[in-house]
């Protein structure tokens, strides 16, 4: 009999550990965001904003991506995970590194504390990349998702390598150019190259699977892949070799067209879906892609429309907030309402199916709580965005409180699924 | 709790004379229908629809000492496939304990939405 993907997947406890840690990081992130509302303004290069950003990108988002890829790569690409043991070691090294780095940024402990934390993240990150390369080497049939994932890993390597260099540079300056020039490259590599590539690739597989969408081509997805990569690589080369960012408008346009092509692909998938009613997970995806459109507009404005320095800072902060919370967190939260019940179902109920009545996956989610979470999340995005854009700090505070409440509701559903 | 309604299944596999059927249905067809009835108890946990109405069952063959089923999934690489195949094997084994339940996963021909039963289509919201 054919070897099946779930037989290849790593142990439940391993993947659950990554998701549980990511969920905790999300609640802490939202709490810190809500409590720091007075600090969320102005120029982004300040200790608390850097701590919050890394809590989001490393603790919440990347931790989730690790867990999701350990679970999904065997399923999506039909190959077994190369080493579950390496993934186990990676978890503890990474967790220690992230906690160290975030505390390091918050208290600005430049020097050996930051260096050590960055080194741990680097070791864990390289271990992950090695595990994935060894796993993906065995893929026989590459589809568009595979290319998105491979590109994401490529950029992840450079994101963490440059990130570690920047962390060391804070305590022992050695980089030839301004720290902020490299920081810009690091942020683009991380947000677009690593996170966006991975979530776009995974969503291309999961959204049609959950909505039962068939009979469409992937031409927009391929166009998105080419355009986003050209745009991103162009922006990086432009940053490295042309200090005045000569070609920024050209590459930003390519990037924007790529994102637009991706939105068109998802729209096509959703149009061809058989499952008409959008469930709570898919509604999160719609929120995410709406925010992606807003990020696109914000990004184009930053790159092409001349504004004063104060407005530029606000727009940059808005861009970061919408990308981290509106696009990425919304999509992840929605997909978690599918992935968590799936994990629990597979562990607890799959062995009983066929002999007794077992719950379906939607029974493992408290839907009213999930709907309330989506409502609060949507509200918080609007309120915080208005607060940042209008420089009205109390609005950021109110939005932060809504965000934190939404995170608690999500946390409740995590516990609900695992205790069911 | 056993999920299977034994009365329904007994009716499904009972000889045609008992059901008052005038046209003589071949025994293998009767058994095929019985197997499908059993497989209807296997629900896709994500969609909440049984695998027969989803059109996932491609082939049912009944032998003296074995039952052979070929099934597919709605999407290649569906993470549920091992669980659904296992559930189908366990269900068949429950009803035919003396026979080997051999459920094979196949990807060709690819599943299409045309395979959905009207009930499944209605459940998915097409109508």
Description:
The complex is a heterodimer of chains A (420) and B (127). The two termini of chain A are 32 Å apart. Chain A has helices at 5-8, 12-35, 47-77, 84-107, 112-136, 144-171, 179-211, 219-241, 248-271, 280-304, 309-349, 367-390, 393-419. Chain A is globular and about 65 Å long. Chain A has 420 residues and is mostly helical. Mean pLDDT of chain A is 90; it is low at 1-5. In chain A, helix 6 (144-171) runs antiparallel to helix 7, helix 8 (219-241) packs antiparallel against helix 9 and helix 12 runs antiparallel to helix 13 (393-419). Chain B has 127 residues and is an alpha+beta fold. Chain B has helices at 6-13, 27-39, 81-95, 118-123, and strands at 57-62, 66-71, 100-105. Chain B is globular and about 40 Å long. The termini of chain B are far apart. The A-B interface holds A 1-2, 4-7, 9, 71-72, 75-78, 205, 208-210, 212, 214-215, 274-277, 338, 342, 345-346, 349-351, 353-362 and B 1-3, 41-43, 45-48, 74-75, 77-91, 94, 104-105, 112-113, 116, 121, 124-126.
Brief descriptors of the model:
heterodimer, A: 420 residues, mainly alpha, 13 helices, disordered N terminus, B: 127 residues, alpha+beta, GMP Synthetase, Chain A, domain 3, 3-stranded mixed sheet, 3 strands, 14% strand
Summarize the structure.
Chain A has 420 residues and is an all-alpha fold.
Strand content of chain A: under 5%
The pLDDT mean of chain A sits at 90
Overall 3D geometry of chain B? globular
Most extensive interface, chain pair and sizes:
A-B, 41 and 37 residues
Provide the number of structural domains of chain B. 1
Q: At CATH's second level, what is the architecture of chain B?
A: 2-Layer Sandwich
Cα end-to-end separation of chain B: 34 Å
Mean pLDDT of chain B: 81
Could you give the distance between the termini of chain A?
32 Å
Which helices and strands, and how do they pair?
The complex is a heterodimer of chains A (420) and B (127).
Chain A: H1 5-8, H2 12-35, H3 47-77, H4 84-107, H5 112-136, H6 144-171, H7 179-211, H8 219-241, H9 248-271, H10 280-304, H11 309-349, H12 367-390, H13 393-419
Helix pairs in contact in A: 2-3, 2-4, 2-11, 2-13, 3-4, 3-5, 3-7, 3-11, 4-5, 5-6, 6-7, 6-8, 7-8, 7-9, 7-11, 8-9, 9-10, 10-11, 10-12, 11-12, 11-13, 12-13
Chain B: H1 6-13, H2 27-39, E1 57-62, E2 66-71, H3 81-95, E3 100-105, H4 118-123
Parallel strand pairs in B: 2-3
Antiparallel strand pairs in B: 1-2
Helix pairs in contact in B: 1-2
């Amino acid at each position: 009999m054919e070897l099946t993907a779930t037989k290849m997947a790593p142990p439940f406890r391993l993947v659950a550990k990554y998701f549980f840690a990511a969920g905790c990081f999300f609640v802490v992130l939202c709490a810190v965001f809500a409590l720091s509302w007075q600090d969320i303004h102005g120029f982004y290069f300040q200790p608390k904003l850097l701590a919050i950003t890394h809590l989001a990108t490393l603790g919440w988002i990347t931790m989730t991506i690790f867990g999701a890829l350990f679970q999904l790569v065997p399923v999506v690409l039909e190959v077994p995970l190369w080493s579950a043991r390496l993934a186990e070691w990676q978890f503890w090294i990474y967790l220690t590194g992230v906690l160290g780095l975030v505390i390091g940024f918050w208290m600005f402990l430049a020097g050996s504390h930051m260096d050590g934390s960055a080194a741990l993240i680097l070791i864990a990150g390289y271990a992950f990349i090695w595990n994935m390369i060894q796993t993906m080497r065995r893929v026989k049939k590459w589809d568009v998702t595979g290319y998105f994932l491979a590109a994401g890993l490529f950029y992840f390597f450079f994101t963490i390598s440059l990130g570690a260099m920047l962390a060391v540079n804070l305590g022992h300056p050695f980089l030839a150019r301004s720290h902020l020039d490299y920081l810009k490259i690091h942020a683009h590599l991380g947000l677009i190259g690593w996170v966006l590539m991975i979530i776009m690739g995974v969503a291309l597989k999961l959204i049609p699977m959950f909505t039962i969408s068939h009979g469409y081509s992937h031409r927009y997805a391929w166009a998105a892949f080419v355009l986003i990569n050209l745009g991103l690589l162009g922006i990086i080369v432009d940053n490295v070799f042309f200090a005045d960012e000569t070609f920024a408008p050209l590459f930003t346009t390519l990037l924007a067209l790529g994102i637009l092509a991706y939105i068109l692909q998802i729209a096509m998938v959703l149009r061809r879906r058989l499952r008409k009613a959008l469930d709570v997970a898919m509604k999160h995806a719609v929120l995410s892609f709406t925010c992606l459109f807003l990020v696109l507009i914000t990004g184009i404005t930053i790159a092409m429309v001349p504004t004063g320095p104060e407005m530029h800072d606000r727009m940059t902060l808005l861009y970061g907030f919408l990308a981290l919370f509106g696009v990425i967190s919304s999509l992840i939260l929605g997909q978690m309402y599918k992935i968590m019940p799936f994990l629990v179902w597979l562990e607890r109920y799959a062995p009983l199916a066929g002999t007794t009545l077992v719950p379906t996956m939607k029974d493992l989610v408290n839907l009213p709580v999930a709907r309330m979470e989506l409502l609060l999340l949507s509200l918080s995005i609007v309120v915080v965005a208005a607060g940042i854009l209008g420089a009205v700090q109390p609005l950021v505070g109110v939005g932060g409180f809504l965000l934190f409440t939404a995170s608690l509701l999500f946390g409740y559903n995590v516990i609900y699924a695992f205790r069911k | 709790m056993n999920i299977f309604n034994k009365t329904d299944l007994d009716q499904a596999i009972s000889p045609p004379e008992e059901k008052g059927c005038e046209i003589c249905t071949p025994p293998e067809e009767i058994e095929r229908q019985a197997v499908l009835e059993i497989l209807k108890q296997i629900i896709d946990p994500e969609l909440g629809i049984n695998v027969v109405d989803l059109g996932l069952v491609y082939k049912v063959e009944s032998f003296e000492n074995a039952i052979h089923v070929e099934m597919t999934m709605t999407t290649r690489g569906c993470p549920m496939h091992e669980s659904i195949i296992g559930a189908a094997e366990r269900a068949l084994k429950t009803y035919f304990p003396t026979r080997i339940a051999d459920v094979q996963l196949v990807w060709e021909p690819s599943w299409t939405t045309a395979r959905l039963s009207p009930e499944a289509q209605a459940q998915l919201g097409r109508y």
